[in-house]
């Protein structure tokens, strides 16, 4: 039902063979801090006179983006450079800036794609533009003030978290939820989109007669790291469901929460309406222990059917859902393809919504609707519907 999913599935074959989709609490990578990686290039050659840099999180903080960046390197070879920002990016923003500057110091690099655009992105762009004013920037999933970022970057694309505010709670209600648990932490609530989404969630819950409960969880960039966040989720959800009953929807704002959250929801019989970053691949295979056989690589219906079967086996049919499009991965791929199109003169200027839509529709294999945020013509919001397993 979607085009180009062979590329996406191959990425997750790599993911499953290493640590599972998303940061799992029961694998070694999460028991230690993953080192920030230097820029990498592949030996495969691409006949271009430019390079495109990609900046992502490590496998601990941004599994989907990291693997998709590696795939873009496989596709385009020496045209792509890939660096990561540190896991503790809030405390190490200078490292984020340094790593981006290292890419920009290569005169062949004409564009940089950053997903997720964590705090430090704006300062890094400013530093690069001081040195390379014509650098082309594509940001995905921005976490700094949109009004500040929009004038700095060329293209910004993110999930429509404003639209998701009402959508997720309505979806949870339709799945049978009477209570909505919202797990987050102060750093995320300082992000305008996430804070506004939380307010809209609460508004919709009150409109539907649902009980909305916000629960503070440890920040995975804090002292306890990812393991501390995951331990809290694993321990707190059973307590919360025992107190409030199984007709409770559980939602979290951070990728590191997703695998333990899915496992806890299944164990307690609660409801999981969608991940923070929706995708069939995000956390579900790792949480459910799904492996992809050699003869099923590139088969999207297989992975959806496998998730559905595992959930049914555990008696949780109809209680968990997601989006059919792997959003974070799409933003990486679309960002690279759009930057490449721009550098090759195939766009109508730096901001070409029609071209961006065309690229994203090719990746998704279906209609993509992008809306702009406020008056910012380069800041695009993407919203999709859910599938229920």
Write a structural description.
It is built from 14 helices and twelve strands. The longest helix is centred in the middle third of the chain and has 20 residues, at 225-244. Helix 1 crosses helix 2 (63-76). The strands form three sheets. Strands 2-1-3-4-5-11-10 form a seven-stranded mixed beta sheet, sandwiched between helices. It has a three-stranded parallel beta sheet with strand order 7-6-8, sandwiched between helices. It has a two-stranded antiparallel ribbon with strand order 9-12. 50% of the residues are buried. By secondary structure, the protein is α/β, with parallel strands linked by helices. Strand 10 (370-373) and strand 11 form a beta hairpin. Helix content is 43%, strand content 15%. The protein folds into two domains: 5-160 and 327-388, Rossmann fold, CATH 3.40.50; 162-322, Rossmann fold, CATH 3.40.50.11390. Residues 1-37 have low confidence and may be disordered. The chain has helices at residues 5-18, 63-76, 93-104, 121-131, 146-149, 161-174, 186-189, 192-208, 225-244, 258-268, 284-288, 300-313, 327-343, 353-364, and strands at residues 51-56, 80-84, 109-115, 136-140, 155-159, 179-184, 211-216, 248-252, 321-322, 370-373, 376-382, 387-388.
